[in-house]
Design brief:
Helix content: over 70%
Radius of gyration: 48 Å
Structural class: mainly alpha
Strand content: under 5%
Number of helices: 20
Shape: elongated
C-alpha cells in the first residue's frame, strides 16, 4: 500500500464516546483512531466495508470500538487473555454466519468491539488484572491518549491475511509481546515511562493493531465460502440477534430495523425461554404502543415455555395489566367516561391477578373496581328515574302551554329543567339527553314569553283602536289588562324580554293617562257641539 495516513485527519467527525468505557491501555481516542485508520485499509480489499450505496455504518463501528471488548462477553470484561483470544475465534465464526441477516448497524458495532479486543491483545498490560498491571495500564493509556493524534500509520502488508486459526494468528502477531512488555515495565519502573520503548514502539504497536484488525475484519467480510470453518452454535446466533434488537432499540431508537432483526430471530425457531423473555423486556422498555404489545406477546410466549422463570415473567405481566387497569380506573372517574372503562379495568386487574395470585394490592383493586361498578350502576339507575320524572313534568308543561295557561306552563317547565339539571354528568348519553332537553325547554319558555309580549302589544293596539273610535271605557279596560297579561314573565329586567315587559307596562300606564285626556277632550268637543247646535236651533226659531 505504501502510503501514510495521518490519524489527526482521520479523527475528524468520529462518533462521541459511549458513557461506559473499559479501563484498558488503549483509551477511547486510540481505539477510535485504530478503527478509523483500519477502515480505508480494509476498503482496499473489501470496497463496501461498513457502508452501502446510501448508508455509512462507521459511526456504529466507532461506537463498538469505544464500548470495547466486553461487548463480546455480554457486558463483562474478559478474565484472561485466553478468554479474549477464544472470543475472537468465536466472533469470526459468528459474524461470518450472521452476515446472511445483513451487515447493518449492529454488525458494524460488533466489528468495532472486535477491533478493540484485537488491539487490547496486542498492547502489553491491556488485560493484566494484577495490581501492578492495572497501575501500568492507567499510565500507558494516559500517555498514548495524549499523543495518539500525532501517530502515523505505515502499511506493513501488501495483501490482507485470511485468518483460519485465530488463536495461532493472534499469538503470531504477539511475538513481540513478552519483550515489549518487559521493556515497557522497566521504563516505567526507572522513571523514563513513555520516553523509553513506547516513544518509538507505540506507533509500531498502533500499526500492528491496524493491520491485525483489518485482517480479522477481512476474514469476516470476505464473501467466499469456507467449508472448513465450524458454524457457531444456535445459542450464539440467538443471542446475537437479541443483542442486535437491544442495540437497535436502545442506541439507534429504530423500531423498524429492530422488527426486522426480530423477524430473523423468529426464523431461527428459538426455544430459549430466557432469550424470548429478554426480547420481551427490550420491546416493552422501548415504550411505543406497538413495541409494548410485542413485548407482552414475547413474555406470554416465554411464560408458557419449559424452563421459563414463570415467577419473574408473571410479575412483569401482572405489572403490565395492573397499569392498564389503573389507567382505565382513572379514566372511569372522569365526567362523560365510557361505559367500558370500569369493565376494562376489572378485566385488566383480573388478568394481573392471574399472573401474580399472591398480590394483595391487585386483589384490593379488583374489590375497588367492583364497588365502583356497583356505584356507577346505582347512579345510572337514579339518572333514569330523574329523567323519567323530568319527562312527565315537561309533558304537563306542554299541556298548559296548549291551553294558553302560560304562567303555569313556564313554572312547570322550570320544574322540569331543575330535574334535568340534577342528572349526573358522569354518564355521557344521559347528560346529553338532559342537556338537549334543557335547551328545548329554554326555547319553549322563550317562545311563550314572546307570545305573551305579542299578546300585550296586541292589547295595547286594541286600546288604541278603541280610543280612535272614542270607546274610551273599552280602551281603558284594554290598557289595564296589559300588566296582568305580563305577570307570567319573570321580573328580571336585565334581560331583553324583561326590558320589553317593563316597556309595555309603562306604555300601558301612559296610554291610560292619554285615554283620560282624550276622553276629556272628546267630551268637551261634544259639549261644544251640543251648545253650538242649540244656539243654531234657537237662532232659527227666532227668525221664524
Amino acid at each position: 500500500m505504501g502510503r501514510r495516513v495521518i490519524i489527526s485527519a482521520i479523527l475528524l467527525g468520529i462518533v462521541t464516546a459511549l458513557a461506559a468505557q473499559e479501563a484498558v491501555a488503549w483509551g477511547s481516542r486510540a481505539r477510535r483512531a485504530i478503527c478509523a485508520t483500519a477502515v480505508p485499509v480494509e476498503r482496499k480489499a473489501i470496497s463496501n466495508a461498513f457502508r452501502t450505496e446510501d448508508t455509512s455504518y462507521e459511526e456504529d463501528l466507532f461506537r463498538g470500538a469505544v464500548a470495547g471488548a466486553s461487548v463480546l462477553n455480554r457486558g463483562k470484561p474478559f478474565a484472561s487473555e485466553a478468554e479474549a483470544i477464544a472470543a475472537i475465534d468465536n466472533e469470526i465464526r459468528l459474524l461470518r454466519d450472521v452476515r446472511k441477516f445483513g451487515l447493518g448497524s449492529y454488525f458494524a458495532f460488533r466489528m468495532g468491539a472486535v477491533a478493540a479486543t484485537v488491539s487490547d491483545l496486542l498492547l502489553p498490560f491491556s488485560m493484566d488484572t494484577s495490581p501492578h498491571g492495572q497501575a501500568l495500564k492507567q499510565r500507558i493509556e494516559a500517555d498514548i491518549e495524549a499523543r495518539v493524534d500525532s501517530f502515523a500509520y505505515l502499511s506493513r502488508q501488501k495483501d490482507r491475511e485470511y485468518v483460519r486459526n485465530a488463536p495461532l494468528f493472534i499469538e503470531n502477531r504477539r511475538s513481540f509481546y513478552a519483550n515489549a512488555g518487559a521493556m515497557i515495565a522497566d521504563d516505567y519502573r526507572r522513571g523514563s515511562g513513555y520516553e523509553g520503548y513506547l516513544k518509538e514502539g507505540a506507533q509500531s504497536l498502533f500499526a500492528q493493531c491496524v493491520d491485525t484488525t483489518a485482517d480479522v475484519w477481512y476474514t469476516i467480510l470476505r464473501p467466499d465460502a469456507d467449508p472448513g470453518m465450524v458454524a457457531p452454535s444456535p445459542e450464539a446466533v440467538c443471542w446475537y440477534l437479541v443483542r442486535e434488537v437491544q442495540y437497535l432499540l436502545g442506541e439507534k431508537k429504530n423500531f423498524y430495523q429492530a422488527t426486522k432483526a426480530y423477524d430473523n430471530f423468529v426464523s431461527l425457531g428459538i426455544h430459549d425461554a430466557v432469550a424470548i423473555d429478554t426480547m420481551g423486556d427490550l420491546f416493552y422498555a422501548f415504550g411505543s404502543e406497538d413495541a409494548v404489545e410485542r413485548g407482552v406477546r414475547e413474555w406470554q410466549t416465554a411464560y408458557e415455555m419449559a424452563g421459563a422463570d414463570r415467577r419473574s415473567i408473571g410479575k412483569k405481566l401482572s405489572a403490565h395489566y395492573a397499569k392498564i387497569g389503573d389507567a382505565a380506573l382513572e379514566a372511569a372517574a372522569r365526567p362523560g367516561a365510557s361505559e367500558q372503562e370500569l369493565p376494562n379495568a376489572l378485566n385488566a386487574f383480573t388478568r394481573a391477578l392471574e399472573y401474580e395470585q399472591t398480590n394483595d394490592a391487585i386483589a384490593d383493586k379488583i374489590t375497588e373496581t367492583n364497588a365502583a361498578i356497583a356505584d356507577r350502576k346505582a347512579r345510572r339507575e337514579l339518572n333514569v328515574s330523574i329523567i323519567a320524572s323530568a319527562e312527565k313534568v315537561k309533558a304537563q308543561a306542554e299541556k298548559s302551554r296548549l291551553a294558553s295557561d302560560y304562567g303555569n306552563a313556564i313554572a312547570t317547565y322550570n320544574q322540569a329543567m331543575g330535574l334535568y339539571e340534577a342528572v349526573d354528568q358522569d354518564f355521557a348519553d344521559q347528560a346529553n339527553t338532559a342537556k338537549e332537553s334543557i335547551k328545548q325547554i329554554k326555547k319553549n319558555i322563550t317562545d311563550i314569553i314572546n307570545q305573551v309580549l305579542d299578546a300585550a302589544s296586541d292589547t295595547i293596539d286594541k286600546g288604541n283602536k278603541a280610543v280612535d273610535e272614542h270607546r274610551f271605557e273599552d280602551a281603558n279596560a284594554e290598557y289595564e289588562r296589559v300588566p296582568n297579561i305580563l305577570t307570567v314573565i319573570p321580573g328580571d329586567e336585565t334581560t331583553t324580554q324583561g326590558k320589553e315587559k317593563r316597556t309595555l307596562i309603562e306604555m300601558a300606564k301612559k296610554k291610560i293617562d292619554e285615554c283620560k285626556v282624550a276622553k276629556q277632550r272628546w267630551e268637551e268637543l261634544q259639549r261644544q257641539r251640543e251648545e253650538a247646535a242649540k244656539a243654531a236651533a234657537a237662532k232659527a226659531g227666532v227668525k221664524q
